[in-house]
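Quick one, T. Sequence first:
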Amino acid sequence: MSELSTLDLPLYSVALAADYLRMPKTTLGYWLEGGTRKGVKYEPVVRTAPTGSPNLTWGEFVECWYVRQYRRVHDVPMADIRRLIERLREELNLSYPLAHKKPFVAPGKKLALKIQDDSQLSHRAWLVVTEPDGQLGLSTIAEDFLSKVDFADGDGPAIRISPNGRESPVAIQPDVAFGAPHVSGIRTENLAELVDAGEEIDVVAEDFCLTEAELRAALAYEWHRPLASAAQVSARGHCVPIGPSADFWRRESERLGNLRSARS
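Structure tokens:
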């Protein structure tokens, strides 16, 4: 695919994107289309203007992956995030500036710093920070984003998201499994359904030419979705908070290994 067709490719409904982004559908809708709450009108955060489209492109999905991290930080004005995206879009002449690596490397970082200063953005919304030695570094949120997103050569567009970090085999790619989370091209959802139905882990892994560690990583990803139904959580007998670290899937692989032993 070309850069343009990849980023502009409609992949997700709002409901499906919200599930993959692990956030409320209504919040995602406001980021895309804007709206009115308690008499106050809010402009879209990611889109330049409301489009009425019920679908997200890959570029919009990647930008929402970045923006969603601010939901975990209190008192971050979405207006500041919108202003940052608008200015980056104008200056870099990119429809989806946060879905490119350009803002995160020099001279993009210098541009981001100028935008932050000119627009007087809240420090919680910063993309770059000035290190004690005077060098420009990335904010914690930007660093976390880059730790999970791979870009095409150089400063090209995003081509892969690793939701549990690069050490996990779980990936989201626009040209694999129609953009669904997968392991080696196999949807994680399908793998979890088989194990939930009673199939043994080693059998499922062998059937799909996966290692058991790869399958356990897929199960860890699926079984710890915060939007899992109460029935699913009850049936599985466990639920942990979201916010996996880099070694999350390793620990879950070990735990799921114990679960398999208990089932035997």
